[in-house]
Amino acid sequence: MKSVIVNDPKKITIENNYSFISAGIGIDKKNHIVNYRVNEDLALGNPDFLLPVVLEPAMSMKRGIVCNFAISEKLAKAIPDIQGIYRRLDPRLKIVPVDHGKDPLHSLTQAREIGCLFSGGVDSFYTLLKHKHEITKVILVHGFDIPLSDRILRKQTANMVHKVASGLNKGVVEVETDMRRNFLNRYLGIADTISPFFASVALLLSSQFKKIYFPACFHKPLSCSAIGHYRAYLDPLWSNGHLQIIHDGDDVNRIEKIAFIAKNNLVREHLHVCWMNNNGVDNCGYCGKCLRTMAALRVVGQLEYVNTFKRPLKLARLSKLVLSKTERIFAGDTLRYAQQLGRDPEIIAALNRCLSNKHGFNIKMWLISILEKLRQSYYWSRFYNIFPEKFARCIRAKVYAIILK
Ligand SMILES: [Zn+2]
Fold first, then answer.
1. Which of the four, 90, 290, 307, 327, has the lowest number of CB atoms within 10 Å?
2. pTM
């Protein structure tokens, strides 16, 4: 069996206390370099953080993994369970051997911080506010949903996250990585890259953090078979003995999260849910995600106090939305919540109409998801960089507006 070779990572500390870490992943004769940049002088502990990057791609390629370093004992023991979850998601994946050294017992007893992945959305605000007395630092990661090439949005997002953190007297760790663009997008078999991507970032920080919360997207998973729900089972398995990873927030549904966070002033000034990102960190108020969130805010009586939506909620547009399977879960929860309150017949009618729309294949959203995948890819980002950034953003906004019209 051919193998995926993972080499010991290297750390170079550069000026202003930024740390730069890179590692090579060998597949056949190609050596893929993945890079991480952290805004702190990071002690590089156990190289466990490379395992989430390569495990599922290796299963997809039916190749064993050879790590030229040691993996911590706890994470090594979890490898069969992690592979089991991946197999349930996609039976075509093959269980593969992972060859690694024994844990060298890195001394990481100085890890004291408690963190929370934070992007300014509903899920991360819920987890941050719920655990605000315990959390010491929020973690912002560049290179997942915000492409590395989108420097304007990255700067605005970083400013927003620093303002929220400062409002709660917390620190901010910023991690920038090309791991998704350079490796996961090329080799990952299943569509959802969230868990291995963020597990890798969390494990990279395990010399500092003893616990990191991963905000959940979904309410109480019944099984790990569904895409999205599997994270409740998979996220904690990446814990490595030094760091505990907690999948947090599946105790409530989306509308209950919104009811919990919406009266907080930081949420009112900084909530960011729009995935279109045409208006920087402001929400477009036009796409499906904005409309669903605005509807939920209106149901809990807080929409007028949230200042981050560019347009007022148009119920006619909400009524015409074509929802995906998962979006129907969120909209259904909002409808039931509104019906229980029974005080806003207009929004109840709009949600009812929206949920009665035939669901299924939505060609507009499919087209946009293809364009977004392209934008995250390595070659596209090189092409994208040819143009002045403002011009590229403007063209993208116009194309998406035409598609969504
Ligand atoms: Zn939007």
1. 307
2. 0.88
- CA 145 – ligand 1 centroid, Å: 14
Q: Does the pLDDT of residue 221 top 70, yes or no?
A: no
120 alpha carbon – ligand 1 mean position (Å): 14
CA of 264 to the centre of ligand 1 (A): 21
Place of tokens 């990102």: 277
Nearest CA to 235 out of 245, 221, 249, 244 is that of 245
Question: How far away, in angstroms, is 309 Cα from ligand 1 center?
Answer: 8
Calculate how far, in angstroms, residue 156's C-alpha sits from the geometric centre of ligand 1: 16
Q: Which residue has the higher pLDDT, 217 or 122?
A: 122
Q: How far is the CA of 180 from the centre of ligand 1 (A)?
A: 23
- State the distance from the centre of ligand 1 to the C-alpha of 276, rounded, in angstroms: 5
- Output the CA 306–ligand 1 centroid distance in Å: 14
163-185 residue pLDDT tens:
999 999 999 999 999 988 888 87
Parse the chain into domains and list their residue ranges: 3-101, 113-248, 254-360, 364-404
392 CA → ligand 1 middle, Å = 18
Choosing among 3.40.50.10260, 3.40.50.920, 3.40.50.620, 3.40.640.10, the CATH entry for 113-248 is: 3.40.50.620
